[in-house]
Amino acid sequence: MRAALALVTCGLLVTTVAGRAPAQPSPSPAAPAPQTAAPAPQPSSSPAAVAAPVAPLSPEREQRLRARAVAYYEGRRTRDQRVLYDLHEPAYRARVDFSTFAQQTTVRLRFTLLKFEVVSVEAQPDEAALVKVALRMDLGRFGDTPVDPVDRWVWRDGDWWITFREIDLPFPK
Hints:
By secondary structure, the chain is an alpha+beta fold. The chain has helices at 59-77, 81-86, 90-95, 98-108; strands spanning 4-9, 12-17, 112-124, 128-138, 144-147, 150-156, 159-162. The chain has a domain at 59-162: Nuclear Transport Factor 2, Chain: A (Roll), CATH 3.10.450.
């Protein structure tokens, strides 16, 4: 089976079949003759326009990040707000004291975290990483429900810290 790629360019549908160049589209008899247009602008080669590739995490940093993520979700499972607070990035803890955090996280801890697993770690720019976690939550009348958060962690002061994000309610959509 051959894969086909369809492109719409200047209102004309052009189809390419598995590596063959597209046939030149012919205008329909009722279509006006094509007009010549100014050349298309060339893509910018400035550093801001081209995203630099992100190097993968070293095995040591990835192992440390996974351990911190497990500690965070174990704290969440046991409803240990001190552990959760202490794993948030220093800039967040400088702005929000523990008692304010504890009041805010009471809602987060309302539902029971049954089990969790760190699924993947993806390096990001600026010494950050995204950690995907598979959770099973007991949502009361909704029962045992899968939830798949993606947390942003940052490398600061020689360790990984989770960044604060507003609450995501784990209800089915």
